[in-house]
Amino acid sequence: MSRNPRQTGAKAAAAASKTLSSSKATKAQKSAAGSALSQAPASTGQTSAKAASAASKTLTSSKATKAQKSAAASALAQTPRRGKK
Q: Is 0.85 topped by the overall pTM?
């Protein structure tokens, strides 16, 4: 897998943190938030396919808050790009 240089920004990391501590956040929303936080500047992580799927579900959810969707979008932005087949 190639190295992904993108990282979660401070605002998205704060939103992800709030999502993780929210009792109303779903499992998918928390997964996306965790992935976003794992890619904050102090981390070297990348979004896995499973976390990307959870982030996608969060973005399309009508119940997700703006902060949860922000964290999910950040996680998706850091999903490694696939090469051409």
A: no
